[in-house]
Design a protein that fits this description.
This is FCD domain-containing protein. There is one protein chain. The protein is mainly alpha-helical. It has two domains: 64 residues, Orthogonal Bundle (Arc Repressor Mutant, subunit A), CATH 1.10.10.10; 135 residues, GntR ligand-binding domain-like (Four Helix Bundle (Hemerythrin (Met), subunit A), Up-down Bundle), CATH 1.20.120. The chain is 67% helix and 3% strand. The protein has ten helices and two strands, in the order H-H-H-E-E-H-H-H-H-H-H-H. Strands 1-2 form a two-stranded antiparallel ribbon. The longest helix is centred in the middle third of the chain and has 22 residues. The radius of gyration is 20 Å and the shape is elongated. The chain starts with 14 loop residues before the first helix and ends with a helix.
Length: 229
């Protein structure tokens, strides 16, 4: 027998899918025609009583489902095609992942500051230098960024932490990459370079509180930029 939401053992639907369905209902109820522009984000989030972060996740999920088109600097438009029956499932939402990373990686950085060996600090330094060297090459820069966060996890000496970071990075998925495509700015990319240096310096200085604060500040910056633009 098929389980429904709310029954024991049935996972709750992801928030972005719930919000996406509400956006689809609004399009139908207000008869927003194909090719027409949706209300501005601020107005739409107020009308639906959701945060702009949740709304952005929903709009990107709808874009992946062919319901809307997000046009940078212009707005969000209904696609010239019938609405699909269901929003695609794309894994954890980007802001779910960022919330987990703020909590977990801040503590991982603090632990690394206590126990990292000189060789492990050098590995973190190499990743930072790779990010700086490949700033203009986005694919190489992102790989170096991943290596940076994994090097910090390895510096704790706890393989479970390494597995957690691998999981968080692997579950960013298509929703995350679309969010970056639409909302990551060159300003954010430039600001995160010194963020990584501050994290490294706190770990190298054996300053757990400083490492925790620097990592949290870095991930909060990313969250703010992606949720407010």
């Amino acid at each position: 027998m098929k389980k429904t939401a709310g029954e024991p053992g049935t996972p709750e639907p992801r928030l972005y899918r719930v919000v996406a369905e509400r956006v689809q209902q609004l399009i139908q109820e207000e008869r927003i025609a194909p090719g027409a522009r949706l209300p501005a984000e601020r107005e739409l989030s107020a009308k639906l009583c959701v945060s702009r972060a949740s709304l952005r996740e929903a709009l990107i999920a709808l874009e992946l489902g062919g319901v809307v088109e997000v046009r940078g600097g212009s707005g969000v438009y209904v696609c010239e095609q019938p609405l699909p029956a269901e929003v695609p499932e794309t894994g954890p939402g980007p802001f779910e992942v960022l919330a987990a990373r703020r909590l977990i990686e801040s503590e991982i950085a603090a632990i690394a500051a206590k126990v990292a060996t000189g060789a492990q600090v050098d590995a973190i330094l190499r990743a930072v230098e790779e990010m700086e060297r490949h700033h203009e090459d986005r694919a190489s820069n992102e790989q170096a960024d991943r290596n940076f966060h994994l090097a910090i996890a390895r510096a704790t000496g706890n393989t479970a932490f390494v597995g957690v970071i691998e999981y968080l990075w692997s579950n960013r998925g298509t929703l995350w990459h679309k969010l970056k495509e639409h909302y990551q700015t060159e300003e954010l990319r430039l600001e995160t370079l010194p963020d990584h240096r501050k994290i490294l310096e706190a770990i190298a200085a054996r300053d757990p509180a400083g490492a925790r604060h620097a990592m949290r500040a870095h991930l909060e910056r990313v969250t703010r930029t992606f949720s407010r633009g």
